[in-house]
Amino acid sequence: MASGRKMSSVEPEPEPAIGLAQMLKEGTASLHDQAEHAAFQTRMVSGELSRAEFIDFLNQVLLVHRTLDGLLSEAAATDHRVATMFHPVHRREEKIEADIERLGGTVGAEPLASTSRFLAAVDHLTDRCPVALIGVLYVNEGATNGNKVVAKRIRDGLGLQKDFALDYLDPHGSEQRRNWMAFKGMLDELQMTEAERESCLDAAKATFGLFMEMSEEMDSASTEG
Ligand code: HEM
Question: Per the domain annotation, does 9 fall within a domain?
């Protein structure tokens, strides 16, 4: 008769360690494909947006970043992991305001329904698990990789000078690659429980989702004239 070696079914094997940067990348890869091909993004990349549409878009992301910059600052004051990740270069509020003004637009707009939902979701998230804001920051920082290219297309589409500053889309300039590699390196060094890492991933997914909803709403508003 077998002598009951049941231990293996009781003690779970630990999951192989995977860095947070890779976990976030893999966990959001399919959402990135969708975001990249969303109608509004496609029009941005093809340089089809009018100046007014681009200013409307900037005003919506301004509302998002005003809230987000504040929440990240507050979270950084109480959580050293957020403090490690969130630096002055990540603040977008003033950069977006300056972009709008340089483009001859007016700063300030009512939030779209999707923007309000985004803000409510981020607020709720911060109450539950402030460190999850790192997942939101990951998406916004990661997006600057593609946005650098988008900025070039927008300049072409709007007939702007090659060096016309579009700092929301391209906040890092020639430091893009270096800053992004450093950001990913820091992500991998953070000490987090598995539950906290999962919260960051959930927050990153939610950020992609909410960003796509906003793009959809912007696109329908544009095409409805
Ligand atoms: C407009 C179309 C877009 C293009 C052409 C584009 C392109 C790219 C490219 C080329 C990279 C790779 C950078 C690298 O590792 O060298 C990248 C990364 C990334 N993009 Fe986009 N992107 C677009 C839209 C977006 C949007 C709308 C979001 C989110 C709202 C986003 C979020 C990210 C993130 C988080 C990463 C980092 C992936 C990683 O962890 O390596 N992208 N994008």
Answer: no
Q: Which residues of 123-144 are buried (b: 16+ CB within 10 A; e: fewer)?
A: eebbeebbbbbbbbbbbbbbbb
Report the atom number in ligand 1 closest to the C-alpha of 204.
35
Within the chain, which residues score under 50 in pLDDT?
1-6, 13, 16
pLDDT digits (tens, 9 = 90+) for 68-92: 999 999 999 999 999 999 999 999 9
- In terms of residue numbers, what domain contains 204? 44-223
Query: Does residue 61 lie within any of the structural domains?
Result: yes
Q: Cα-flanking dihedrals φ and ψ of residue 67, to 5°?
A: -70, -45
Contacts of 221 (CB under 8 A, 6+ apart): 56, 112
Q: What is d(CA 100, CA 180) in angstroms, rounded to the nearest whole number?
A: 25
Distance (Å) from CA 19 to ligand 1 centroid: 19
Q: Residue 30: inside a domain, yes or no? A: no
pLDDT more than 90, % of the chain? 77
Ligand 1 center to 119 CA (angstroms): 22
How many folded domains does the chain comprise?
1
pLDDT for res 12: 55
